[in-house]
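ok so heres the complex, two chains, lmk if somethin looks off
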Amino acid sequence: EPEVTQTPSHQVTQMGQEVILRCVPISNHLYFYWYRQILGQKVEFLVSFYNNEISEKSEIFDDQFSVERPDGSNFTLKIRSTKLEDSAMYFCASSDLGQGFASEQYFGPGTRLTVT
Amino acid sequence: AQSVTQLGSHVSVSEGALVLLRCNYSSSVPPYLFWYVQYPNQGLQLLLKYTSAATLVKGINGFEAEFKKSETSFHLTKPSAHMSDAAEYFCAVSEAGGFKTIFGAGTRLFVKA
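and the predicted structre for the whole thing:
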């Protein structure tokens, strides 16, 4: 069964450093998403991406964040200068139709980011 | 703005007992509603979704949920709990034409032998 994969599973970085979280969505999907879950808190929407541009973003997704689909398979989330409060589990998801059609979003296993 | 409220951060049931996880939503337009399950150290798996068709939705693993517009609720039920149902459950809402899903805070289900 096709699945979304994410690397690395755990990333430790120092405050102020740049990190790139990588995701490989399901191959025929066209919509891509990033969510985060701070330990013990709810899953929060960060950004959605379609046709090489951002479709929607939350207030969390400020200038420190960026997303990119550098090739036909990867979807990345970059945090330019990490802060302690960026420590969280980051989930990538993909779907084959937009939310307007209630398409199922398939989630990856997540990358745990720890900022020290 | 859309929002989701899950009543009870923790629910404990005995094996074989009824599971009831509560979810209330707020949306200015007809919503699409979802229940996801998260097992420890894993991603999110879709249990079921409501898309304005039948109000009683059946999902995987014997779970079902009923959309009640008058109560703005989408409670998740399972007639008989199994030990393997122990996990975190998230209710979520999105709206037609939108690209984001709003999640509730989650309910951790414990199943006692």
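quick notes: Chain B touches chain A at residues 32, 36, 41-46, 49, 51, 90, 92, 94-106 (CB under 8 Å). thats all i got rn
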